[in-house]
Every structure is written in structure tokens, then in C-alpha cells.
Amino acid sequence: GENVEQHPSTLSVQEGDSAVIKCTYSDSASNYFPWYKQELGKGPQLIIDIRSNVGEKKDQRIAVTLNKTAKHFSLHITETQPEDSAVYFCAEGADRGSTLGRLYFGRGTQLTVWP
Amino acid sequence: NAGVTQTPKFRILKIGQSMTLQCTQDMNHNYMYWYRQDPGMGLKLIYYSVGAGITDKGEVPNGYNVSRSTTEDFPLRLELAAPSQTSVYFCASSHQTGFQPQHFGDGTRLSIL
Fold it and tell me: What is the pLDDT of residues A25-40, one digit of tens each?
């Protein structure tokens, strides 16, 4: 669970457009995939998560998709608003084995939404 | 409900000094974690604890020590501060294993000069 690649590192969109952030992982044992939002000067806050028995999960304007075969998962934000501007982190973890309880984070994506 | 509280928010240390970063949570969570965040590098796990009296190393434990004498508190100790330890440190807690959301504090920004 140590290799999580996150792209892009920066993303600028116009208000109302959609934003997509993608992550890939290498550990086949990984089965938990949360996304965190970090605003300036604050700690990361969970916004949505998905488990490996589910392919897609949606919460209002936010959705996450998971492709376990290809080992990648994505965050989709629709109808973006300026308050969506923040750093977004993907992470992955497993509920068994030597890494039980631990999360491995991507390097983050700075999303800027222009009014 | 305060959640996870970290103190201090900012600190400047000289090389070789020692200090303790405090973390306390009021959610009765069993699991607690310490991360460091460097620019463009995401969060790296330093140490974690699955309950009082139990601690274990994460990805980057060198230069740090922890203790967990109570469920609420999980202090992080730097014994001999080095410039490489300049970072933002986050404490987090969760109710049980990794499938429960980790709740983060607002961080301690530490500079070693």
C-alpha cells in the first residue's frame, strides 16, 4: 500500500465546470479508498470514501469511481464553485495484513475554481 | 465537541533542541496517528497507536518518539531537532481500523533553524 500516484498536481477550472482527479495504486490487497479535502491552514477532512465491493459512490456534486482491475480510482466534482478550491488527497488502505489501519496518501491536487 | 486538538500551532526551534507536540482527542477513539506533510509530498505516517499503551512505527519514524498513556492523548517527541524535520505535523484519530474516517487536527507548523 505504499505507492499511490495522483494526477494532476494542479487543476484550474471555471466555475460551473467539472473537475476530475485520478489516482492509481499498486497493492492488490487495498480495499478502502477515501478522498480528503484540505483548506488553507486546516487539517484534511474526509469528503467521500469507497470500498472495494462498490464501483461508484455519489454524494450530491461529488462522486468517486473505482476500477479494481485497473487499480485506479477517481474523484469527480460537478458544477464546481469557488469554495471547492482546496488541496484534494486520495488515499488507500487495507483491512487486513501488516498495514491494517494505515492509510497511504497521494501527493495532492491543488484545485482552483475561477469565478 | 472539539474533536482533535493540536498544540502549539506554530513553533520555531534551533537545531539540537527538543520539544513535544501535543495531541488530544475527545471522541473516545482507539486509533491515533501522527503524520508529517511536506510541500508536494502528501502525508507520511510517522507513528500510530491502536490503543493506550500500544504504539508502532509508520513510514518515517526516525528522529521521533511517541507514547500513549491514555486514550485521549498521543504526544510526539522530537529529541534532537534537525532541519529535515521542518514540516507541518498532523495528528489524527479514528474509532477503529482504517475503514473508519480519520479525523484530523489543524496541524502544528514547525521550523528548525
Answer: 998 888 899 999 999 9
